[in-house]
Amino acid sequence: MTTTRLLAVAFAIATSTAAVAQTVPMAPPTTNSTMPPAMSTNTGDSNTTAAPVAGANSFTQSQAGELLAKRGFTQVTGLVKDDHSVWRGNAVRDGKPFAVSVDYQGNVVAN
Fold first, then answer.
1. What is the pLDDT of residue 56?
2. Number of domains in the chain
3. Phi/psi of residue 78, each to 5°?
4. What's the CA dihedral at 97, 103, 105, 108 to 10 degrees?
5. Does residue 40 sit within a domain?
6. Structural domain includes residue 70
7. Residue 6: per-residue pLDDT
8. Distances (CA, A) of 46 to 30, 51, 72, 87, 109
9. Is-contact 42 109, C-beta < 8 A?
10. Is residue 9 part of a domain?
11. What is the pTM of this model?
């Protein structure tokens, strides 16, 4: 009877180890290249396609202007924080005038 118990325990250990060993790793996620990119009105200089994003903006007016300058905008005027804490103003890029905005994430949007 002891031999029977010993065999039962050995069998239980052997089968539980085999079950763990059969775990199949998941394949990495794939992208569907036939899907079009998300639509956006931003300049491609943003973290999200939903820019500008409303939120508590910690950028100062000067810092918002610096972000615009880093994106190639010059002649920044009228930069004012709106009711959604998004900096909005006007600027020029490549000789063309734009209405610009900078949100709390640092997204720069030009329309």
1. 78
2. 1
3. 60, 30
4. -10
5. no
6. yes
7. 61
8. 24, 7, 14, 14, 7
9. yes
10. no
11. 0.55
